[in-house]
Amino acid sequence: MSTPPHPGGNGGFPGLPWPPDPSRPLPSPGDAHDPPDLPPAPPLQGEPVPPREGYERSTRQRVLYLPVVAGGDLLGYLWAAEANANACGFLRNLAFFERSLNASSLWSRRLDQAYDEGLPAQDAVRRWRGAPEDPEGGAVPPDAQEQWAPGLNELGASLNPDAPRSPGPLVQDGLYPDGTPADRSRGWGPLVGAPLPGYPEETAGPVVHLPVVLGGDLVGYVWAAETGDAAGYLRRVPAGRTGEIAMGLWKARLSDAFEAGVHAVQAIRAFRGLPEDHLSGTVPADAVEQYAPALAELRRLAEQ
């Protein structure tokens, strides 16, 4: 297997440091690791529960946004897609990490309530302008002016310029990236079966892995070969269909890293702390790297 080339910059995969941060050295291919005695992952309670219905939390369209402020501090933005009446959310200001995390819980509940009431996304955002300030979640000032951003990624870059950028789900606003409708009754795009470019998904050597969690449940693992030339996602078998569905976004992120020439171990490290996707989950910000002497050992762990 050959290691993908490393271009001079981050190759269109923003948020990944390259060269790697010397304070977090990559494992050396020759290093020996004693695999830790890992306890089995905690079992899921009953059958995995499908996520509740709600607004889509991603879009490729222009977005309308309003500031959420608490005590004069900007905790984040409420946003809504320009033409997709089913896409809106709360974008956190990571400079106020804990406070914006608490605020995101409040705004998620409020948006879920608006969805249940059948409100279009922009109305769900606008309804909160001038409402009393919540002690934890803040408020949209009554004189806040509606603003527009070219897209959600651009809005996120202006608010959190040093945070990794996420491409989001493969299907957004009902469309694939090339504009093909996900609903085939609306038409067909080019019928191609080309897989996403990516790292090889087999390796004979040791692997580094991190947990993927959705709604507090362990649904899978992202892994990378210590040599950096292979990587992938493994669903946790007891997570069933939920773990399988989560695969799509992680494969897309790994594909982006591969095309940027990023060392695979550095790529999965950059996944820590990305916002939780409602289908694919997240790698917790405090997730600890684990090692397995071979990919087969990680597959056995994923079966527990």
Outline the structure in words:
Among the domains are: 63-162, no CATH class; 207-302, no CATH class. 22% of the residues lie in helices and 16% in strands. The protein has seven helices and eight strands. Mean pLDDT is 82; it is low at 1-15, 29-35 and 189-193. It has 304 residues and is an alpha+beta fold. A hairpin with a 5-residue loop joins strand 6 and strand 7 (231-235). The strands form two sheets. Strands 3-2-1-4 form a four-stranded antiparallel sheet. The protein is elongated. It starts with 62 loop residues before the first strand and ends with a helix. The longest helix has 20 residues, at 97-116. Residues 1-57, 153-189 are annotated as: Disordered. Residues 16-28, 37-51 have a biased composition (Pro residues).
Provide the gyration radius in Å: 20 Å
* Share of β-strand residues: 15-25%
Q: How are the strands of the largest sheet arranged?
A: 3-2-1-4
Let me know the average pLDDT. Answer: 82
* Class of secondary structure makeup: alpha+beta
The biggest beta sheet, please?
4 strands, antiparallel
Helix content: 10-25%
Low-confidence region ranges: 1-15, 29-35, 189-193
- Overall body shape: elongated
Give the tally of β-strands.
Answer: 8
| SS field, number of helical segments | 7
Order of helices and strands: EEEHHEHEEEHHHEH
Biased composition (Pro residues): 16-28, 37-51
Region (Disordered): 1-57, 153-189
